[in-house]
Amino acid sequence: MQTGKVQHKVNPKGPVDGQVRGWIDLYTFPLVDYKTGELNGIIEYARDITEQKITELKLKKLEKKYREAYFQASFYKDLFVHDINNILQAILLAIQIISNEMPNEFRNKFNPYINIISEQIKRGSKLVENLKKFTQIDERDIKLKPTEIIGILDQILDKIKTSHRHKEIDFEVNSMDNKIYVKANSLIRDVFEILTTNSIQYNKNAIVEIIVNITQFKEKNKNWVKIELIDNGRGIEDERKNLIFLRAFKESLSVKGMGLGLSLVNKIIQAYNGKIWVEDRITGDYTKGSKFVIIIPAKEEKS
Does CATH place domain 145-297 in 3.30.565.10? Predict the structure, then answer.
């Protein structure tokens, strides 16, 4: 007190049967003679903060429970992804062994079924992979960096030629520049892969057409990149154009398989501070195909 400094303490109210009855917020102001330095007295200000303290303690308990639940959920998610992938790979290996060991007289009859099983296993594995990426975006901030997209599209084209040899695909990329940089990361590849895969999978035409138009524009002193992915597939009805990007949206049996993929695409584009929507390739007639439009920030120019 002789120093003249104000003291602050939170004191528990006198325990009854070992239980604290509440808390007092206490400030003590010393009255010191500035000439002699002697303490002439004190002024105390006290207020009951029991309700505030109880609320703080409850919040701390809730925070602890939330943190424990979060880490537990994260653990089970990683365990689920790991175990399901192992199960799928074991099934795929077993199917491959059966196919290799099968007598020739049974191949023509059973190979189509084996191919269906193998394809569904691959789809299941991709679903688990997308689910993992979806939760990773939720769990942490996405670090963005200059990412070149023309090269990524070229790589996807090469992959499509290999994985869809049974289909004739006309894939065209139109851009005024040989290289286009956006503020993104490696997940931009997943965006293009999901969209192009859907364009091929949900297309019954003899020739699958995929056209990617890339343009750059400036708005409100900010540079943007606009990407249009246009196909001649079966299209998307007007009432579903917004729903397909929602996380909770469940596709009907006639359009199964698109939901989580497009939800992931939407989640990634949002993480890039961009936008995505879908239009008709030919305005007013959704059956002629779709146009997915993506707008994301361009790489920042060095001043």
Answer: yes
